[in-house]
Structures are given as C-alpha cells and as structure tokens.
C-alpha cells in the first residue's frame, strides 16, 4: 500500500498558519484532533523559546475558542485547544483517508505521513485543492510487507542515532545533539525514539519466546 509524505502550506488567513509564521522557530506537534459540532478539539505540544508569548497570542485568536494548559516543561507546553476553524480536519474528512498522528507544523507548513490506497490519496489531493491548501508530495513509498515494525520517521531517527554514536558506550551523541542533527525538537526526538525502542525490544523479546 502506498505511503506518502506531504508538506502542506497553511493559507495565510487560517489561524494556525498566521500564528506559526509569526513565530517561525516554534513547533506545533499535534497529538490528537477530532471534529465536534462547533468546530474541532485538538491536543498539541508547543515548543518555542518565546513560549509564553506564543500561548498568549494563541489564546487571543478569534478562531481559538478555548485553550487549556495541561502541562509545561522547559520550552514545551502541552495544551488542549478548541477552534471554530479546523481546516485540516475538514479537508481530510471527505477523502476517507485517516490522518496519522502526531504531525508537526512549523512556519506555516504541516508535514503529514499518509498510508492509503492510491485512489484515496488522489481523493485527498482533490479535497486539499478544494479547501485552497497548497501541498507538495515529498516522498511516496510502496510497502509490500504485511507488517512494518517502525514508521519511516522512527526508522530514520534510529538510523541517525546509530550513525551519530547515540548508542555507543561511552555515548558520543546526546539526545540534544541528535535532535539538532535531524532537525526536530528534543521532546519530539525523545518520544519518537522511545516508541521505536519499545517496538524493537518487544519484537526482540517476542522472537526469543
């Protein structure tokens, strides 16, 4: 089944596009999102040096009808937000393609990984066009395995960790160094690596049994 990696350009008049362009170094990592009667509800990690300013401006946006801070550590906050304009959710709904979580959004661009039959991917492209969301296809791969242990992003991160000495003894690469090397937030790097390691260890132990 085809797997596509897309980069979406959020229109200028959409609140998350406006906010992320105002703080181009900030990363919005959407962990979950669901539509409701009044719009949509989402759960996201926001990582930024000017975190208080980002959250304050986010709270003041007309399209953000609710914002609750669930936790904060260093330069990252976990927030639940409600919006009257869940544009990305609306664009996906009509295509029948499940939106994989988490996905990241920085400087007005969202990066999606989608796994679906070719006709569904075509439907998604048509939906994005209808909603005025420009996009480009960065990569398409064809998976022939019945089950793949790691996602593409997890596999690439584990490979980078090995190549940079993260698993060497003594360690030649810190988590911060690895995150900088692959160009993602430290929190994203840590969680992605942890999930990949969990899958690898469980598969290894299961094979031993």
Distance between the termini: 30 Å
Helical amount among residues, as a percent range?
25-40%
Which parts are unreliable, with pLDDT below 50 for 5 consecutive residues or more?
Answer: none
Mean pLDDT: 87
Please provide the count of β strands: 8
Beta-strand percentage range: 25-35%
Descriptive notes:
- By secondary structure, this protein is of the alpha+beta class.
- Strands 4-5-3-2-6-7-1-8 form an 8-stranded antiparallel β-sheet, with helices on one face.
- The protein has helices at residues 15-22, 51-60, 87-93, 118-130, 152-163, 175-182, 186-208, and strands spanning 2-9, 27-36, 39-47, 64-73, 76-83, 103-106, 109-115, 135-142.
- Helix 5 crosses helix 7 (186-208).
Index terms:
7 helices; 31% strand; alpha+beta; globular
Layout of strands and helices, then pairs:
Layout: E1 2-9, H1 15-22, E2 27-36, E3 39-47, H2 51-60, E4 64-73, E5 76-83, H3 87-93, E6 103-106, E7 109-115, H4 118-130, E8 135-142, H5 152-163, H6 175-182, H7 186-208
Antiparallel strand pairs: 1-7, 1-8, 2-3, 2-6, 3-5, 4-5, 6-7
Helix pairs in contact: 5-7, 6-7
Question: What does this entry show, briefly?
Answer:
The chain is an alpha+beta fold and 209 residues long. It has seven helices and eight strands. The longest helix has 23 residues, at 186-208.
């Amino acid at each position: 089944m085809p797997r596509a990696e897309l980069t979406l350009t959020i229109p200028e008049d959409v609140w998350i596009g406006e906010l992320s362009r105002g703080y181009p170094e900030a990363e919005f990592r959407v962990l979950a999102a669901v539509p409701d009667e009044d719009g949509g509800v989402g759960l996201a990690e926001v990582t930024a040096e000017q975190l208080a300013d980002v959250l304050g401006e986010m709270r003041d946006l007309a399209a953000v009808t609710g914002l609750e801070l669930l936790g904060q550590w260093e330069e990252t906050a976990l927030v639940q937000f409600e919006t009257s304009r869940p544009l990305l959710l609306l664009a996906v709904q009509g295509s029948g393609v499940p939106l994989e979580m988490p996905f990241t959004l920085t400087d007005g661009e969202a990066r999606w990984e989608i796994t679906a039959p070719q006709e569904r991917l075509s439907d998604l492209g048509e939906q994005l066009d209808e909603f005025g969301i420009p996009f480009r296809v960065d990569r398409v791969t064809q998976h022939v395995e019945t089950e793949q242990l790691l996602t593409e992003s997890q596999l690439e991160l584990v490979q980078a960790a090995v190549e940079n000495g993260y698993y060497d003894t003594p360690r030649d690469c810190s988590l911060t160094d690895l995150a900088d090397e692959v160009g993602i937030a430290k929190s994203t790097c840590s969680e992605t690596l942890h999930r990949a390691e969990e899958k690898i260890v469980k598969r290894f132990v299961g094979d031993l049994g």
